[in-house]
Amino acid sequence: xxxxxxxxxxxxxxxxxxxxxxxxxxxxxxxxxxxxxxxxxxxxxxxxxxxxxxxxxxxxxxxxxxxxxxxxxxxxxxxxxxxxxxxxxxxxxxxxxxxxxxxxxxxxxxxxxxxxxxxxxxxxxxxxxxxxxxxxxxxxxxxxxxxxxxxxxxxxxxxxxxxxxxxxxxxxxxxxxxxxxxxxxxxxxxxxxxxxxxxxxxxxxxxxxxxxxxxxxxxxxxxxxxxxxxxxxxxxxxxxxxxxxxxxxxxxxxxxxxxxxxxxxxxxxxxxxxxxxxxxxxxxxxxxxxxxxxxxxxxxxxxxxxxxxxxxxxxxxxxxxxxxxxxxxxxxxxxxxxxxxxxxxxxxxxxxxxxxxxxxxxxxxxxxxxxxxxxxxxxxxxxxxxxxxxxxxxxxxxxxxxxxxxxxxxxxxxxxxxxxxxxxxxxxxxxxxxxxxxxxxxxxxxxxxxxxxxxxxxxxxxxxxxxxxxxxxxxxxxxxxxx
Amino acid sequence: xxxxxxxxxxxxxxxxxxxxxxxxxxxxxxxxxxxxxxxxxxxxxxxxxxxxxxxxxxxxxxxxxxxxxxxxxxxxxxxxxxxxxxxxxxxxxxxxxxxxxxxxxxxxxxxxxxxxxxxxxxxxxxxxxxxxxxxxxxxxxxxxx
Lengths: 483, 145
Hints:
Number of domains of chain A: 1
Low-confidence stretches of chain B: 41-52
Helix content of chain B: 10-25%
Radius of gyration of chain B: 14 Å
CATH class of chain B: Alpha Beta
Shape of chain A: globular
Strand content of chain A: 15-25%
Oligomer: heterodimer
Distance between the termini of chain A: 36 Å
Number of strands of chain A: 19
Number of helices of chain B: 2
Structural class of chain B: alpha+beta
Largest sheet of chain B: 5 strands, antiparallel
Largest interface: A-B, 40 and 34 residues
Mean pLDDT of chain A: 93
CATH topology of chain A: tRNA-splicing ligase RtcB
CATH class of chain A: Alpha Beta
CATH superfamily of chain A: tRNA-splicing ligase RtcB
CATH superfamily of chain B: Archease domain
CATH topology of chain B: Archease, Possible Chaperone, Chain: A, domain 1
Order of helices and strands of chain B: EEHEHEEEEE
Helix content of chain A: 25-40%
Largest sheet of chain A: 8 strands, mixed
Strand content of chain B: 35-45%
């Protein structure tokens, strides 16, 4: 049981549980939050889970969680676990079941005002045209060889098949294809699940959203990102579908043996792991990178589909209907990165589960046209309030291993949301606010109600005040389709 | 009187059930039944009574190995999720033929999935415990959706 008194306030918005709190902790555990969000976090198991992450072999400096922290499987969602590549572990639970669940933002030269009058038509067209919802298969059916190509090449494969442009690759994290991916590390079962799900949205909290840039906070950075007030933009939030889930399931099962083999004691079975520098650890990394590439290819195909649909429905309404990719970020991943530990640049496995990379200006791997300002950090909120575009900073590298939050975080269970909120009422209420929503089921819609989520404005303000990512623009929903 | 097979329980982000069984085999069968009841047709609206089904038309054999009952339970449910997704089938009858901490052999019957209510993507170890009670066994399983 973690209580408020167990935290030591290091500085404004930084709370730390010292490693003396529990004998099995190897490093302290930090929570970046304001007092209200800290109180909220005491309401579920997320803080105990955070403490658990500090017990993993090879963790360095501190493990941490973002202000949108909530309970997950093993580590909490919103968690970052830094582990030494040479002596530390890699853990599937610290990445998440939906490997490379992530989000992309497309910009346009269209004013939101121009499309608001036909938002109903736009939402309907997207709902009909984007394969979404439970068990829906896409129309990109992959052969065995195609599947392996997707796993090893990610977005680049999609672009080579005509789904998008080279410019899209430039503006995707890892260029949409992580090094180290090996299709042979992915099970036949996972590949089978992935065969006909490419280009599908999925369900749960996945969505496509047409939105308006309501306010710009940083004109210089907004300009570099190509954003302006009143602009129509489109969000796409989706992951690696059944394939990624199967990879996680497979390795959570297989690594149970590794834990015994390497003598690793775990406070929670979902923290199952293996030394990164071991055959088991390397296999998981190779499989995870492959699943991540699948997700990038998925978002690439989805973006292509969205572009075609909008081009069609907006023909005759606006002339320039081009949608360009601002950026695509992942928020469930493990990356090999170098960070200073005790003054020395050290190779670390940075696990981000429900957390987004937030690289500052000059960092390698950023697209040329963002190198001066820093990486776009995309924060999808919930469908009733707002989303944000932030920019990464050098301070993030100092404080949070180059990481920021990822969204709003749930506070209410799906079951409670379903009983308290009626999908029909919700759709009506949102419509009265000018937001049109279409979802696969009314119950599904209720589960995703704004009331079920934390306050995204609050979460973003913490991150901004900390200086780990700076506000660039606030974006509000106009039309949303959910699976 | 019909013995309760499972209950849906609260969980912040996803779905969870508590399954019951007079013995371990029944526990495993009811856990699977509960999962499918949450997930899909052809069950009809009443989850706790015998499903009003058309003649079951599909049958599968499941054979698994593990190291303990908890792993086996998670594996069992994940195998069924996999078959459900890849074969497009929903199962309503589960006959557990062999069950030990090291192995499970089962026969499942069902039919093509008609329409879905929920996408369960994986069974997790989260807060999983197989517990002996005075009525037999119970287990809480959390699913990722």
